[in-house]
Amino acid sequence: MDNYRRYAAVILATLFVFMHVFPSIGEFTMKDCPVCKLRPNKYFSEPGAPVYQCMGCCFSREYPTPARSKKTMLLVKNITSESTCCVAKSSNVITVMRNLKVENHTECHCSTCYYHKY
Questions:
Q1: Angle, CA 65 vertex, CA 82 and CA 85 arms, to 5°
Q2: In terms of C-beta distances under 8 Å and separation of at least 24 residues, what long-range contacts does 110-113 make, across chains too?
Q3: How far apart are CA 83 and CA 116, in angstroms?
Q4: Average pLDDT for 36-60
Q5: What percent of the chain has pLDDT over 70?
Q6: Cα(27)–Cα(32) distance, rounded to whole angstroms?
Q7: What does the pLDDT read at residue 31?
Q8: How far apart are CA 115 and CA 112, in angstroms?
Q9: Which H or E run includes 8?
């Protein structure tokens, strides 16, 4: 009976440590990644004519692929990911540096990542 109490105490102590440590992990990773919003592009902006582009972070997560989904996959993956990216909701095409056309974003939001669509 004493062994069971020791195991229970070790398991509870480990559980408390994980509960204390895991919430703070997200704080360290998100500090370097600001919210999705318009920011001036320092490479294409000219004095008096700033060029804005959407920059920042949105949602991302990974989880084990369900067994029924694996049955329909051509290439079976054990991990499935979901994410959204900071993309332009609207933009205007402008010419900078005499002949270079770039998109000047006017509004941003988190939406499906373009590179996941293809």
A1: 10
A2: 110/36, 110/58, 110/59, 110/84, 110/85, 110/86, 111/84, 111/85, 111/87, 112/84, 112/85, 113/83, 113/84, 113/85, 113/87
A3: 9
A4: 88
A5: 73
A6: 9
A7: 56
A8: 9
A9: helix 2-30
